[in-house]
Specification:
mainly alpha
């Protein structure tokens, strides 16, 4: 029972089972969650902490169940990464799409220290590298917004 719940959480209700680019689809779910949360800093921050904690737990269960590190179908880390990317960002949908692209680039490239964080044990490693990619994407988004003003 716990394994099924963990799989449902880690795969974001099965989104992680999309056969092509599950991480991209998980990031798209992150966009949807961001829109549903609204602009409140408190609501966004609480959601990030809750999703991160749920991802550490469920990702760790999935790693043990699948007997492999960072299983491809675990996409809750992309949801958290997108929320971090958009945290307190004053953007509408066009800016959110730009943030999506910035996060996907940062998540794929995994600049230091994100590439080191994925080596952390269990679900923490699954979540930490995407959280760092989200921080990088948030900084890049803010820099672009500043330059466009």
């Amino acid at each position: 029972m716990i394994t099924r719940v963990a799989l449902a959480v880690a795969t974001v209700g099965g989104v992680g089972y999309v056969p092509i680019a599950p991480g991209t689809f998980g990031s798209a779910v992150g966009l949807l969650v961001w829109w549903l949360l609204g602009p409140s800093a408190v609501v966004q921050s609480v959601a990030i902490v809750a999703i991160f904690a749920a991802g550490v737990w469920s990702g760790g269960v999935c790693e043990r169940d699948c007997c492999r590190t960072d299983p491809r179908h675990v996409v809750i880390d992309e949801v958290a990464g997108m929320l971090i990317t958009l945290l307190l960002a004053p953007v509408a949908w066009a800016g959110a799409f730009g943030a999506f692209l910035l996060f996907r680039i940062a998540d794929v490239i995994k600049p230091y220290p994100a590439n080191r964080l994925e080596a952390l044990h269990g679900g923490l490693g699954i979540m930490a590298d995407d959280a760092m990619a989200g921080v990088y994407a948030n900084i890049a988004l803010r820099a672009i917004l500043f330059l466009l003003r």
